[in-house]
Write a structure and sequence with these properties.
Length: 409
């Protein structure tokens, strides 16, 4: 399997209509994008610190503009309290204008008569960027009135926000029930590539999972135990597995609720042909700090007063070797506290192995993307998902509300 090839053959794994299936000439098209980007107030001017998510939406935006659509874009940005001006979409609109060369108008609100007037005045190829959808308290509650207000703005709805597709909000679900609703190119590609991991991925399929909590990934672990060849566990979540085995974890992050989940996964692994692998050595520190005293533990027992903060060098090499022998690799979650130099080795070695392997490689959003950027491997990965939470939910086999509501192909 090749991720790029599979994605281009989207209809095999994506069974919803897309923008290719509809006539958009002259129509007002409401596009749900994921412009939840970091902002930077450097030199006194607020700007976009990382435009990766904006760039990811450009194929859909360019496609619609080239066919004479009048675009209305809507996205959330952060978690504003009321109408926090620091989380306005205005700097996002300025960056979008620079990237597209289009005229981008900034709406004063999300819905309302003035927004409707501005949407009606749009010329073909122009863009109206609505204000932060979370300025509206009804967004996350999927409020019908907000959904109706959004539907008044457009003739067609397009969902291109994979990062928000696992949420049934007014901009992802409610409005899509009130307008003809289809997928954008990014959403189609994301669902196709992530689904391909479950449907015909080339073997050996090696899954690398890290991060803090087992509870957030137990469904993915259980699903991959059915189809993968190996699951390599790192990050703080490994300590829940160690606790389930009666191994001392010291002051490591190992929430009680994760222990039983880890025990269940270990029992399933015993009956599975998939190998569930845990670290064989650790890097520990006496505090969660870049200035902490550190030790390498030959084994996995963590003394009291210490915490595990990275997989050890032997584990990192073993995991890298597994990745190097794979035909398909899915990676989600760092191997340790990689943001602190003393504890970045495991994540760096795994990241480099993922970049160097000849396997089809997919990174599932979240901190793994930050690690890929930190180590300069982004351009060497077949697919980097824009939505960690949505990717994990899809891999668990759970429906995505933002996809389910779209018209069937």
């Amino acid at each position: 399997m090749n991720a790029g090839t599979q994605a281009s053959g989207g209809p095999k794994l994506f069974r919803k209509k897309t923008i290719r299936d509809v006539d958009v000439q002259g129509k007002r098209v409401l596009v749900r994008v994921d412009f939840n980007v970091p902002l930077d107030a450097g030199t006194g001017r607020v700007g976009v610190a990382d435009d990766t998510r904006i760039r990811a939406a450009l194929p859909t935006i360019d496609y619609l503009r080239s066919r004479g659509a009048r675009l209305i874009l809507v996205s959330h940005l952060g978690r504003p309290q009321d109408r926090d001006p620091a989380l306005s979409m205005e700097p996002v609109g300025k960056r979008l204008a620079e990237l597209t060369g289009a005229r981008v108008w900034q709406a004063p609100a999300v819905v309302g008569e003035e927004v409707e007037r501005r949407a009606d005045r749009l010329e073909a190829g122009e863009i109206l960027l609505l204000e932060n959808s979370r300025y509206e308290p009804g967004e996350t509650g999927n409020d019908p009135k907000l959904a109706e207000g959004l539907a008044k703005l457009a003739d067609l709805y397009v969902d291109d926000a994979f990062g928000a597709a696992h949420r049934a909000h007014a901009t992802t679900d409610g409005v899509a029930r009130r307008l003809p609703a289809v997928a954008g190119l990014l959403l189609e590609r994301e669902v196709s590539v992530v689904s391909s991991l479950l449907d015909g991925a080339a073997s050996p399929l090696v899954v690398v999972l890290g991060g803090a909590k087992v509870s957030g990934k137990i469904g993915v672990i259980e699903r991959f135990l059915e189809i993968a060849d190996a699951i390599l566990i790192g990050g703080a979540m490994c300590f829940s597995f160690f606790r389930a085995q009666g191994i001392a974890t010291g002051d490591s992050l190992a929430p009680e609720e994760g222990t039983e989940l880890a025990r269940r996964a270990l029992e399933l692994a015993e009956r599975s042909s998939c190998r569930l692998e845990l670290p064989s050595d650790l890097v520990i520190g006496d505090s969660f700090s870049a200035q902490a005293a550190t030790r390498i533990v030959e084994g996995t027992d963590v003394p009291d007063g210490w915490m595990g903060l990275d997989v050890g060098p032997r584990t990192a090499k073993a995991y890298a070797d597994e990745v190097g022998e794979a035909a398909t690799v899915f990676w989600n979650g760092p191997m340790g506290a990689f943001e602190m130099e003393p504890f970045e080795n495991g994540t760096r070695i795994v990241a480099e192995a993922v970049a160097e392997t000849s396997a089809t490689t997919v990174i599932g959003g979240g901190d793994s993307v930050a690690a890929a950027e930190r180590y300069g491997i982004v351009d060497r990965i077949d697919h980097i998902s824009t939505g960690g939470g949505a990717a994990l939910q899809l891999l668990e086999g759970k429906p995505l509300p933002g996809v389910e509501v779209l018209q069937d192909a």
